[in-house]
Amino acid sequence: MRIRTAAGAAAGTLALLSFLTPAAQADTSKGDTVFTSLSFSRTTVDVGVSAAQKLTVTATAKDGSGIKDIYGAKLVSPDDRIVHAGSADCTRPSTTTRKCVFQFTLEADRSDYYDLKNSSAGTWHFTAEAAANDGDFYDLEDSAPVKVKRYAKLTATQASPEPVASGGTLTVTGALTRANWDTNVYAGYSGQSVALQFKKSGSSTYTTVKSATTDSSGKLRTTVTARSSGTWRWKFAGTGTTSAVTAYGDGVALK
Fold this sequence. Notes:
Distance between the termini: 68 Å
Helix content: under 10%
Structural class: mainly beta
Mean pLDDT: 90
Order of helices and strands: HEEEEEEEEEEEEEEEEEEEEE
């Protein structure tokens, strides 16, 4: 990375996306400069089609000669977009350390060239350079990942008939959609395995009964044999690019 611009410039710049960054590469360093701690306010950020999502990254670096500053803090996506920190709050806990808290904003509906695209979903990396007073440095490139996923929705589970005869056939339906960052709408998520779970009346625990696969429109439909009164619900485990989600359940009594 080898950035030598002022940290204040990044701190005062609104979050901005760009295609001009190279793909993530290995961390590099010189001398005794290290990042002693690095934490994310969330390890996974689920972004829908309208509401902006915030992420805070706290980084502390140390060097025997003292840390001049932590430069160039940004998030880099799988499709090589950049989100710069919207703000940075830096302090010096000791003569050898510097701690910075960076605030990022992620959103799909910016109404301009810089909003998220579907290709941006997946593993992002926080990158920054800690520069020491004696010329040592540490470039953080690929060792600080965070997941940024497309937000998914499941419609409320529908089970019928209600009530159902003991041993009768119950038809359970639903629909799985996820945020399309290219069009800023929720669209059906096809070909996905979704678990159908059941919680017997009086119990607090759901058990997976079977799974069903969404059709080309993201719709779910399956049948089960009703043997007890209780609540049925759909549960999607998520993928590397799409969030997990659990639907509201539908209580069905036996007659």
